[in-house]
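Quick one:
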Amino acid sequence: MTVLVLRLAGPLQSWGDSSRFVRRNTRREPTKSGIIGLIAAAQGRRRVDAVEDLTHLIYGVRTDQPGELLRDFHTAQSSDGNSMMPLSSRYYLSDAVFVAGLEADTSLLEGIDDAIRNPAFPLYLGRRSCPPTGMLSLGLRQGSLIDVMRAEPWHASPGYQKRSRVSHVRLEFVRDALDSNESGEISRDVPVSFDPERREYLWRTIVRDSPIDVVNPYAVSGGDEPSAARHDPMSLLGGQ
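Output:
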């Protein structure tokens, strides 16, 4: 088994799977449809091109840096400038970092890896206003999706890792259900067509697996102790 590992980081990300009308939500982690769309853009596919061959990828994503939820208000005018459009709210994740894994045949993943490193179209993290920063592809790993994601080092920003202080951190991990017996959250998140004239999505089961324990390379001595035990300035007033 082979897994392609991607690092998804940028000032803003937005991964909507249920946005309607004037409210454009984002999930707390990248959607499978968003990742398939990114791959399709890298490969030079148009929105009207088929993507069924990509829907069979086994997908999982780890939250290395959760970021902050950001709400942005949008206003717009008609083309002639005579009327205002309804006020809309769009939600983003600010300064988040995710590690995504895609399990499939080696030959398929090698082609995807090459396309992401040399994309035909600009790539973005959910919306066109959200370009990625740094290198997207971390390369191919041998093993199952679960094993690879548990072995992958922590990819949060150095500043975030330094602020964490503790020697080990636990990261949220969600993935595709591996068989029909696994239960989880149901989401309409598998694209059949990105064609603007007939967008179509299928349902998938999302499993929230046990958190992944990773080593913090910037840990400080005593970092596993409660913060109050490390430094409690109010303790100086205990005898007064």
